[in-house]
Design brief:
CATH architecture of chain B: Orthogonal Bundle
Number of domains of chain A: 3
Helix content of chain B: over 70%
Distance between the termini of chain B: 38 Å
CATH topology of chain B: Rna Polymerase Sigma Factor, Chain: A
Distance between the termini of chain A: 110 Å
Number of helices of chain B: 9
Radius of gyration of chain B: 18 Å
Number of helices of chain A: 6
Number of strands of chain A: 3
CATH class of the largest domain in chain A: Mainly Alpha
Largest sheet of chain A: 3 strands, antiparallel
Oligomer: heterodimer
Helix content of chain A: 55-70%
CATH topology of the largest domain in chain A: Arc Repressor Mutant, subunit A
Structural class of chain A: alpha+beta
Largest sheet of chain B: none
Order of helices and strands of chain A: HHHHHEEEH
Shape of chain A: elongated
Largest interface: A-B, 33 and 52 residues
Order of helices and strands of chain B: HHHHHHHHH
């Protein structure tokens, strides 16, 4: 390291803080000892440090522990009721009698929901609500016609098929009473 | 990490408030000094220092002992102080009124026999506080951490979330600024 005054002054703080490597530190030490300007800079840096820590230590020595701890403890105890309140609110749900009631109630509720899904047309947790599919069967002129209508996509599918049973019965004429007409 | 600190922390993690009280007793002055150094306001410093310990208590379950307890604690102190300072934007402080006594204590031994030096030191203390007030919170934090605890640049960097190089450059800048402001009094 080139030990001119400018370089030394830039590294003086780090040197005083013990943050330089051994070789650099030794070089700066030698320079400072022989240089009145850098020596004065060192003294000024140290003085700032001493005065600052002295001021803060004096201030801190005036703070008594008890009032300080009271303030911390107050904050801690103010925090606790929030947790306590949450527990107080939730705790009754965990009483054994209530759990004994809650289990069958939950089962009945689930069964009700399941039944609704099964038997209420179009009631599928709101996902396919309003989407109705219907199948109509029409019997006419020796053919059976089945029509599937699906309301959401407006799809209509028509099947035409022959009834094997009717062929066997050999009564090929459709009846006018067929409700499909 | 200091074994007794770790033992106390573990007891705290098991819900022992008395153990936490011991930790507070051990570190409250240091934490107060750090906070006061950054905020330069006695009442605010008291408020924030207590909040530091409260936050430490609240999050002590998450402390795994990866660093020293005081490093962790000072990190909370510095972060809270800088946040507080940025929110408050206070002017010059009330600290100056205590400067005479503080400087007497700090330099009493060296200046007791020299009234001129004594007067100059008091003046220096007052100017120093005013000069520190003009630094940014980040610069104030490094100079205070270094002045109080003599912490290494590595530790300071870890607390402030910056590199050792940044700590060194902030310290250099802060000291240079202080010397510019205090020139005739040093």
């Amino acid at each position: 390291m080139k030990t001119n005054c400018e370089t030394v002054k830039n590294s003086l703080g780090a040197w005083l803080d013990g943050e330089l490597g051994h070789a650099d530190a030794e070089e700066i030490r030698r320079h400072v000892e022989g240089c009145p300007s850098c020596s004065g800079e060192r003294r000024r840096l140290e003085r700032v440090q001493v005065v600052l820590s002295g001021v803060l230590e004096t201030e801190a020595s005036r703070v008594a522990f008890e009032p300080f701890w009271d303030g911390v403890r107050r904050r801690i105890s103010e925090e606790r009721p929030r947790q306590a309140r949450l527990w107080e609110w939730a705790r009754p749900a965990f009483y054994p009698q209530r759990i004994a009631w809650a289990v069958p109630v939950a089962i009945v509720f689930l069964l009700a929901i399941f039944s609704l899904v099964q038997y209420a047309p179009g009631w599928r947790w709101g996902v396919n609500r309003g989407n109705v599919a219907a199948v109509d069967s029409i019997d006419g002129h020796g053919f059976n016609v089945a029509v599937l209508r699906e309301s959401k996509t407006k799809t209509t599918v028509i099947w035409l098929f022959e009834s094997q049973e009717e062929d066997d019965e050999a009564s090929g004429e459709p009846t006018a009473k067929d409700p499909a007409f | 990490m200091d074994l007794s600190d770790w033992e106390l922390v573990q007891r705290c993690q098991n819900g022992d408030v008395a153990a936490f009280q011991e930790l507070v007793a051990k570190y409250y002055r240091k934490v107060y000094m750090v906070v006061l150094g950054i905020l330069n306001h006695r009442d605010d410093a008291m408020e924030v220092a207590q909040e530091v310990f409260f936050r430490a208590y609240r999050s002590i379950q998450g402390f795994k002992g990866g660093s020293a307890f005081y490093t962790w604690l000072y990190r909370i102190a510095v972060n809270l102080s800088i946040d507080f300072q940025r929110r408050q934007k206070r002017g010059p402080t009330e600290l100056r009124e205590t400067m005479d006594e503080a400087v007497d204590n700090a330099e009493g031994a060296s200046s007791a026999n020299d009234p001129f030096l004594d007067l100059q030191s008091k003046e220096l203390g007052q100017r120093l506080v005013a000069a520190i007030n003009e630094l940014t919170p980040d610069h104030r934090a490094v100079i205070v951490m270094r002045a109080i605890e003599g912490l290494s640049y590595k530790d300071i960097g870890r607390m402030l979330g910056c590199s050792e190089g940044t700590v060194m450059s902030r310290l250099h800048y802060a000291r240079k600024k202080l010397q510019e402001k205090l020139g005739p009094y040093l």
